[in-house]
Q: What sequence folds into this?
């Protein structure tokens, strides 16, 4: 029988671990039918990879013990996933944990090796399929350690996309591979800087920010070249909501897109067990 335990959706990237608490499958189905096509986490926790203390999960869970929940983990960072799973197994009562793979998802993947695609990219597509207008394709932009721009066809299939360096990586590369350029700390796309940088740090901010925006816009446009209607654009990851409008007039910013994709995949798997 499907579990009715609380669901902890985990999205492990290369710089952060993101956790979302969803109460249970029945509550998710009820709430999403009434409000939004996407299940939304009741609460979230983001931990930086380099200093994230997973012991914080005890306080974050509040009324629930670690072992009270089902833990569904989507990861593109194998060492970090191993550390989390080992920590979960060290708890007094071993919680139920499962790593998600491409074959678990309610998503057609029109690529030779679906198992070699980042699971976060695929989960973003699962969530976008619940949101996009019928018969309209989608472009999903993930802003993280890397920036990905992914394409979902009008029929709902994941068709691939593009990967480029994220803003922090780009800024760090300018510093590490030159003699005089300073390290400019850029963690997310927020308020747009002036295109005209009047100092070297400001020029780096301008180049990295508008370079990322320009690349994403160009890729979205090219992905839509062969479609009857322009793709519906969804943005997630390290950005401010205001950045979405820079990508497309009707672009939507959804900070928990991947976590919601996990919950949708689990719901589908629960329904298959009924």
A:
């Amino acid at each position: 029988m499907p579990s009715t335990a609380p669901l902890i959706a985990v999205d492990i990237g290369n710089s952060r671990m993101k956790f979302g608490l969803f109460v249970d499958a029945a509550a998710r189905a009820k709430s999403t039918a009434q409000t939004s096509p996407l299940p939304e986490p009741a609460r979230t926790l983001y931990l930086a990879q380099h200093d994230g203390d997973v012991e914080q999960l005890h306080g974050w869970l509040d009324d629930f013990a670690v072992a009270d929940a089902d833990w569904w983990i989507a990861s593109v960072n194998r060492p970090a996933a191993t550390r989390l799973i080992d920590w979960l197994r060290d708890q007094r009562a071993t919680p139920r944990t499962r790593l998600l793979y491409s074959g678990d998802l309610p998503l057609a993947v029109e690529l030779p090796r679906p198992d070699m695609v980042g699971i976060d990219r695929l989960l973003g597509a699962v969530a976008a399929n619940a949101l996009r207008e019928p018969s309209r394709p989608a472009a999903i932009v993930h802003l993280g350690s890397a920036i990905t721009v992914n394409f979902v066809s009008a029929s709902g299939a994941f068709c691939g996309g593009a990967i480029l360096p994220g803003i922090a990586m780009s800024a760090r590369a300018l510093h590490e591979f030159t003699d005089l350029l300073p390290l400019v700390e850029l963690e997310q796309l927020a308020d747009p800087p002036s295109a005209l940088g009047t100092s070297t740090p400001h020029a780096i901010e301008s180049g990295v920010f508008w370079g990322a925006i320009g690349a994403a816009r160009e890729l979205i446009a090219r992905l839509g070249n062969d479609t009857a209607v322009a793709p519906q654009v969804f943005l997630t990851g390290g950005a401010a909501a205001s950045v979405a409008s820079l990508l497309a007039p009707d672009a939507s910013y959804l900070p928990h897109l991947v976590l919601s994709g996990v919950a949708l995949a689990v719901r589908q798997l629960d329904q298959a067990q009924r």
In short: The chain is about 35% helix and 20% strand. The two ends are 6 Å apart (CA to CA).
